[in-house]
């Protein structure tokens, strides 16, 4: 089986590459990534001598290079994760989100169609559904109502992916997952940002009243779900992916748990001006993917402890990221708050 993983040097992509090599040892994997600020070749450096994987640096929005790659390799299966992924950055500037998430997805779909890829798994997000009130869940049938430029770009790409199934018969599957956490997550997202700031005794900038709810899933559970969707999902369908129910918590609870595990004081918490259009709550109903054989297994506290240990043990990984352009972004996003 010849498999392409886009965004393979990012957080979920790198975890997926490790998972696929472990659980499907005969697969040959092409790991594609542009190595933007969020992509880090270090994330998959441990595989450099593994002959089952090759790395290609490539922009998914560049049709000439992408078409040539697909024609040459003849992929059977594509896991498409490459994206601009951070909501706050999309508020500052949406252009790269449209280029990579929308145009890049269309370029990949055209290449997949002309090279006769058997299955195209598009990794999307529960943010396409918008925001929930205190109760209820997002279902695959829930109307799309994205609120951030990031979420809107993902919703657009989801619809294009589904249209390629309807129009051209390309076997596409769309997955919509909740908030991931785990090793190799770039320290701009809530959990790695707060863990690394706390380790440095720096303030933890909690947006608004801190009562926004996310439904956390350990990244390995998400990777298992993606493999399940690829192998057992029905073409043209959407599958929601959510974590264990104890992972549905507000940001104050997440922050308190991080500080407790690290034995750091609550005085590090710094309430700051809210994110514009900050979605209040996400939670998905995962019964459709449960029905084809996947269920989340890692409890939030267990996953959080493992994740924090990884950041404690891998200080050089995040300390080398938190320099230069990262500090400029940090000042732009948090300086005036
Ligand atoms: P990430 O930002 O860590 O990784 C994205 C990767 O894509 C990076 O390695 C980056 O270099 C690469 N990339 C960006 N633009 C590219 C381009 N033009 N060409 C090739 N590569 C490019 O993101 P992540 O958190 O790992 O998310 C991966 C996917 O999963 C995204 O599509 C995201 O929307 C989706 N998702 C993420 C979460 C989450 O909680 N992190 C939840 C649900 C869905
Ligand atoms: O739901 C899936 C989505 O989860 C993915 O599609 C996105 O790629 C991923 O970034 C994530 O989006 P969120 O906006 O929910 O994640 P983030 O880590 O940015 O924020 C999580 C919560 O924490 C949210 O309520 C905002 C809050 N927050 C975040 C940051 C970065 C803070 O209070 N302070 C912060 O500094």
Q: Segments where pLDDT lies below 50 for 5+ residues? A: none
CATH superfamily of one domain: NAD(P)-binding Rossmann-like Domain
Overall residue-averaged pLDDT value: 98
Bound molecules: nicotinamide-adenine-dinucleotide, 2'deoxy-thymidine-5'-diphospho-alpha-D-glucose
- The proportion of residues in beta strands is 15-25%
In which range does the helix fraction lie? Answer: 40-55%
CATH topology of one domain: Rossmann fold
How large is the radius of gyration?
Answer: 19 Å
> Main beta sheet: strand number and arrangement?
7 strands, parallel
Global morphology: globular
Q: In summary, what is this structure?
A:
With 337 residues, the chain is an alpha/beta fold. The chain is 42% helix and 16% strand.
Describe the structure.
The chain is an alpha/beta fold. It has a domain at 2-181 and 216-241: Rossmann fold (3-Layer(aba) Sandwich). The protein has helices at 11-23, 63-73, 87-92, 95-114, 149-168, 190-199, 219-232, 251-262, 287-290, 300-313, 315-321, 324-334; strands at residues 2-6, 28-33, 53-57, 77-80, 119-125, 172-177, 180-181, 204-207, 213-215, 217-218, 238-241, 248-250, 269-272. The strands form four sheets. A seven-stranded parallel sheet has the order 3-2-1-4-5-6-11, sandwiched between helices. Strand 5 (119-125), helix 5 (149-168) and strand 6 (172-177) form a beta-alpha-beta unit. Helix 2 (63-73) packs parallel to helix 4 (95-114), helix 4 (95-114) runs parallel beside helix 5 (149-168) and helix 8 crosses helix 10 (300-313). The radius of gyration is 19 Å and the shape is globular. It binds nicotinamide-adenine-dinucleotide and 2'deoxy-thymidine-5'-diphospho-alpha-D-glucose (DAU). Nicotinamide-adenine-dinucleotide (NAD) binds at residues 6-7, 9-13, 33-36, 38-39, 59-61, 81-85, 100, 104, 123, 125, 154, 177, 179-180, 186.
């Amino acid at each position: 089986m010849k498999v392409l993983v886009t965004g393979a040097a990012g957080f979920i992509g790198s975890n997926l590459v490790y998972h696929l090599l472990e659980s499907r040892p005969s697969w040959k994997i092409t790991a594609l990534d542009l190595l933007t600020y969020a992509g880090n070749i270090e994330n998959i450096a441990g595989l450099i001598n593994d002959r089952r994987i090759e790395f290609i640096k490539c922009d998914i929005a560049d049709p000439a290079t992408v078409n040539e790659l697909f024609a040459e390799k003849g992929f059977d299966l594509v896991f498409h994760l490459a994206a601009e992924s951070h909501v706050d950055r999309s508020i500052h500037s949406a252009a790269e989100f449209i280029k990579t998430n929308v145009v890049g997805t269309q370029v990949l779909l055209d290449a997949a169609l002309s090279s006769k890829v058997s299955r195209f798994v598009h990794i999307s997000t529960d943010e396409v559904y918008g925001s929930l009130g205190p109760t209820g869940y997002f279902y695959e049938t829930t109307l799309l109502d994205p609120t951030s430029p990031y979420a809107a770009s993902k919703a657009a790409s989801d619809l294009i992916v589904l249209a390629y199934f309807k129009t051209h018969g390309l076997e596409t599957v769309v997955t919509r997952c909740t908030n991931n956490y785990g090793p190799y997550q770039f320290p701009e997202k809530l959990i790695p940002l707060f863990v690394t700031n706390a380790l440095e005794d720096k303030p933890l900038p909690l947006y608004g009243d801190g009562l926004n709810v996310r439904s956390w899933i350990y990244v390995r559970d998400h990777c298992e779900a993606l493999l399940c969707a690829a192998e057992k999902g029905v073409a043209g369908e959407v599958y929601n992916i959510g974590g264990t129910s104890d992972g549905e918590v507000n940001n104050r609870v997440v922050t308190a748990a991080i500080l407790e595990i690290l034995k750091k004081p609550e005085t590090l918490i710094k309430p700051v001006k809210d994110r514009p259009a900050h979605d209040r709550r996400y939670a998905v109903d995962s019964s459709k993917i449960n029905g084809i054989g996947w269920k989340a297994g890692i409890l939030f506290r267990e996953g959080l402890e493992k994740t924090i240990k990884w950041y404690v043990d891998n200080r050089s990984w995040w300390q080398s990221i938190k320099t230069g352009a990262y500090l400029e972004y940090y000042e732009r996003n948090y300086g005036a708050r």
